Structure to design on (477 residues):
């Protein structure tokens, strides 16, 4: 049997980040027993800047929104339109996340069942590679005069739903809708209530087996959604199957945002050593490649096994690896890609020319045939990707994360790629946690590098004056 109450929804927004951007237009078509019972089309005043690229995409201008109602003013109307309906949208996660945050700002809980028409299209038309709205519209000869406007796109979804009912049997449609609204297969030792109470917020989750043995630590922008995905995949993935068979308890820790979740995940994996976190599990040793210059001004590589890294001496290292095999494989690859020398990279010990020179790969740096300046340029290129980058700020910084959904705010103190600690704010209290063991951590470095690659994240960074409390004894692990 097909669902009796559906709400076809589309929104336009000021951007793609639901924690910070706002809804500027919403279109809703409420359907009951396959008939339209209500239609809604409304521009909203987001009370924030409207980027020009959004105007270019939608045609909506800041002037169009000036005298329109805010979400706060129409929240009850929207909630009633969506109440008791399955929430249907194209890439439903996007539209749902924005509306969930808008309702959360008004302290209204919003958690409807969702149906993603992208997933529905993929199930019904598996031979097609594209399932965006333009592709769906063209494939099924649907009509939409004004794409990228909320009501028109919502109506396009309604047309799509009606069209597929004429093309497929009821049994096929039921299976397709089941896939688009896929519920997880419940692990034997968990209860439905255990999954229902999972927070739909950013943070970390920990799976435990019998005797509270940690199985897996994960992080997500939406804990509940990510946990459910583990169990949806348990038949296809051997690791997920093993976890599903052993799990007895789930612990969750909500954070202010994704960065805090990443930091916490890295910390807990090293502390708890869960069975199925292979990549982040703590290793006491790292393989470091240190660069030195020989008497002829050629750079050489010295491979060292280290347990500590002084962040003030990072410039001397060209890269870090988890194992000697990874390090040697990388060096061998650089020899071929950049015509480097086996001998200078420490791969081969010889008093004459290296083996790669005899294969016409090395250009003779090992016997002084190639000028050092030419070799050095290729050497720098070869290790530019793995070398720890210079700290891009003049001193320590604070990165701020705020979550309007749970009212959590957190400040992370960072210096020279080292995580110093955090200051957490909630409605009840402020909690300051400064590390007593300040250290350079390769995983934290990778997290921060990924964070700084997004220009939007720089807005969350504030520089602070150097503080002797943590800079006096920067060490490493």
């Amino acid at each position: 049997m097909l669902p009796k109450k559906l709400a076809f929804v589309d929104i336009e927004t000021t951007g793609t980040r639901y924690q910070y951007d706002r809804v500027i237009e919403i279109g809703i078509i409420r359907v009951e027993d396959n008939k339209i019972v209500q239609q809604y089309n409304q521009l909203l005043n987001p009370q924030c800047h409207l980027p020009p690229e959004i105007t270019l995409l939608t045609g909506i201008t800041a002037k169009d929104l000036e005298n329109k109602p805010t979400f706060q003013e129409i929240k009850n109307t929207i909630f009633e339109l969506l109440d008791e309906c399955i929430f249907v949208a194209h890439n439903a996660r996007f539209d749902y996340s924005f509306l969930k945050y808008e309702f959360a700002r008004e302290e209204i809980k919003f958690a409807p069942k969702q149906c993603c028409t992208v997933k529905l299209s993929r199930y019904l038309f598996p031979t097609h590679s594209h399932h965006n709205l333009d592709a769906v519209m063209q494939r099924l000869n649907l009509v939409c005069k004004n794409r990228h406007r909320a009501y028109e796109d919502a109506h396009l979804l309604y047309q799509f739903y009606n069209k597929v009912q004429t093309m497929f049997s009821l049994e096929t449609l039921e299976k397709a809708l089941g896939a688009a609204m896929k519920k997880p297969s419940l692990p034997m030792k968990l209860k439905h209530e255990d999954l229902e109470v999972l927070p739909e917020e950013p943070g970390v989750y920990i799976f435990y087996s019998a005797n509270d043995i940690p199985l897996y630590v994960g992080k997500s922008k939406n804990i509940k959604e990510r946990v459910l995905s583990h169990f949806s995949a348990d038949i296809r993935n051997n690791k997920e199957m093993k976890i599903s068979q052993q799990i007895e308890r789930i612990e969750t820790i909500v954070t202010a945002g994704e960065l805090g979740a990443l930091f916490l995940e890295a910390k807990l994996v090293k502390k708890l050593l869960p069975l199925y976190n292979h990549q982040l599990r703590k290793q006491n040793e790292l393989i470091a490649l240190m660069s030195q210059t020989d008497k002829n001004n050629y750079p050489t590589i010295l491979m060292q096994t280290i347990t500590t890294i002084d962040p003030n001496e990072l410039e001397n290292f060209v890269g870090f690896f988890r194992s000697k095999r990874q390090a040697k494989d990388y060096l061998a690859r650089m020899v071929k890609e950049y015509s480097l020398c086996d001998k200078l990279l420490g791969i081969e010990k010889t008093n004459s020319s290296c083996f790669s020179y005899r294969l016409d790969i090395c250009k003779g740096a090992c016997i002084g045939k190639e000028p050092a300046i030419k070799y050095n340029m290729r050497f720098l290129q070869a290790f530019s990707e793995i070398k720890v980058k210079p700290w891009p700020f003049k001193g320590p910084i604070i990165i701020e994360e705020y979550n309007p959904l749970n009212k959590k705010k957190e400040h992370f103190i960072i210096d020279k790629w080292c995580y110093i600690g955090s200051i957490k704010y909630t409605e009840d209290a402020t909690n300051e946690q400064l590390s007593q063991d300040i250290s350079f951590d390769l995983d934290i470095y990778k997290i921060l590098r990924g964070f700084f690659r997004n220009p939007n994240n720089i807005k969350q960074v504030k520089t602070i004056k150097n503080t002797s409390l943590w800079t006096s004894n920067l060490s490493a692990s």
